[in-house]
Amino acid sequence: MTGRVTIAPLTATAFAPFGDVIEVTGDPDKIINQGQCGRYHDLARLDFSDGCAGISLFKANPRSLPYQLVMVERHPDGSQAFIPMTHQPFLVVVAPDEGGRPGHPQAFVTKPGQGVNYFRGTWHGVLTPLHGPGLFAVIDRIGGGANLEEFWFDTPFEIIGG
After folding, report:
1. Burial of 121 by CB count in 10 Å (0-12 exposed, 13-18 middle, 19+ buried)?
2. CA distance 5 to 96
3. In a 10 Å sphere around its CB, with 0-12 CB exposed, 13-18 middle and 19+ buried, how is residue 86 labelled?
4. Measured in Å, how far apart are the chain's first and last C-alpha atoms?
5. pTM check: above 0.90
6. What is 3-160's CATH number, 3.30.70.100, 2.60.40.10, 2.40.50.100, 2.60.120.480?
7. pLDDT above 70: residue 61
8. Which of 45, 71, 77, 158 is nearest to 123 (CA)?
9. 82 within 8 A of 15, measured Cβ to Cβ
10. What's the rounded Cα separation, in Å, for the pair 31 and 48?
11. Is 30 in a helix, a strand, or coil?
12. What are 14-37's pLDDT values in tens digits?
């Protein structure tokens, strides 16, 4: 399993098998704060086998394209949401599960203001900001156990711009 993967824009439809796109679209669900704030409610399906949801901050080094994908990971005990704290795009890499191993990867680039929530057990690349600072709020499972599986490719995939 080797080759190139071309980046596509991140859309809710294309990403649906892997998780949720967290973004503001359309009209808010509710107007709050004396009419000064629109609330877009419950945008991600958080799913944990046990433990609880926690919010952490991740600060990742920016990467450049073409990007060499050498490894993907997944979290069998909980979903994992990445919400950028800047308005810079980042690279999102996912792969379908094929019998307990990742299938051919797919790559997406976010628009400024988009985040993602990976479903529990979804193979995905590591946090890959394309610009600095790579600061993200991460909502994921806090609890016992490793909750991490890694898969290292024999030959890296080259992720290229679309």
Report:
1. middle
2. 14
3. middle
4. 21
5. yes
6. 2.60.120.480
7. yes
8. 71
9. no
10. 30
11. strand
12. 999 999 999 999 999 999 999 999
- Cα separation values, 135 from 51, 62, 86, 100, 162, Å: 25, 10, 7, 31, 25
Amino acid identity of residue 108, one-letter, is F
Domain ranges of the chain: 3-160
- Segment 107-136, tens digit of pLDDT: 999 999 999 999 999 999 999 999 998 999
Contact 3, 95 (CB under 8 A): no
| Whether 121 contacts 94, CB under 8 Å | no
Radius of gyration of the chain (CA): 16
d(CA 109, CA 91): 5
The H or E element spanning position 15 is helix 12-15
Beta carbons of 5 and 106 less than 8 angstroms apart: yes
